[in-house]
Amino acid sequence: MLKINSDRFLQSLRDLSTIGATPEGGVTRYALTDIDWQAREWLKQQAASYGFTSHLDAAGNLFIYDPEIDVASPPVLVGSHVDTVPNGGRYDGALGVLAGLESLISLKEAGAPLARPVKLAVWTEEEGSRFRGGLVGSRAFIGEVPEVELNDTDAQGVTLAEALRQWGLQPEELPQVASKPGQVHAYVELHIEQGAKLDFANEQIGVVTGIVGIRRYDVVVMGQANHAGTTPMDMRRDALVAAAQMILAVEQTVKKSQYTEAVGTVGRINVEPGGVNVIPGKVEFSLEIRDLDIAAMDALSEQILQQLQEIALVRGVEVSFEHTAEVKPAPLAPAVQQIISSVAEDLGYSWRQMPSGAGHDAQHLARICPTGMIFVPSVKGISHSPQEFTPDEDCVRGANVLLNTILRLAGSL
Ligand SMILES: [Zn+2]
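Above are the sequence and the zinc ion SMILES. Below is the predicted complex in structure-token form.
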């Protein structure tokens, strides 16, 4: 089994985390800003010092590859992102990019004769922290950034098109970024779990089975606002008490269901009129359901919406729903999962299969080529925070799994 150079790899993780470092020990690197550019320039320099070539496409995606591998076959792509959430962690995205670069270097140093080229992709605006659509680079790569999205603005009123132009890119060329069918042999991404399953189970490697789908609703409960002092308890149509019961029903329905990985969340609530001495007349709340299986999402949303209607009936309030967002689940290729788990096995690492509850660029790549994801533990499941932490040994294990997965995907001559 090939191994990466762990000192060099861990040093690169520390070096990249200084670009956009915050006083709290986190990182702020918004997409398509000067800081993001600095991170890309640093990557290009690293790559050049090992004899690699870099190329920036019209979406700002940075590709790094060995110009000496003169094989016409479709490449194995490996990648992740370097943009972050405000005051985010040092590992989210950066780990996958740097493990990808380290894998390229290790393959070159080992002189492994590959049947296919390997390319590192650094995707643009994964987080959606500056331009809310998120996953912009990987969507451009599969031809799914609609023209209207170029008019989306950041907090300063700068459009996505303007931000691309400030980097010397031509937004009109965005459609040309889209890869054609068969152009990519396979895609693999190493990422921190951002949840606590591996850490709590004391396991080293997560073999990702897929990226969960997301369904969101806005729920409105209409009761009757009235005087809190003069309206007897049995004459009330309290929208908030009904909503409270509905929120509990969401939790119970998901917990009691046969779908053990499914999650249901009410994360936002608004009460009107919102006075201490007024019975709430109207409540709006969000409802979100996530699972890897679209049938489970369908079954759960149907059960939940039916329960909310029953509660409304009993409580004499009215309830209405609006389906506001839908992201389809993205199952990952069983063949790539098989390679990742056998690599982990051969390296002597413990591993488990698991879905990803968070979105990743891999969910889009999965639509055009066989795709796999490797997770390493996030201590206490903390992410999108300066406290985000993955021990050095876990970072190295993840990179070793990535390297050998790439090697098997690229195949030897
Ligand atoms: Zn990420």
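Residues 294-315 form the longest helix (22 residues).
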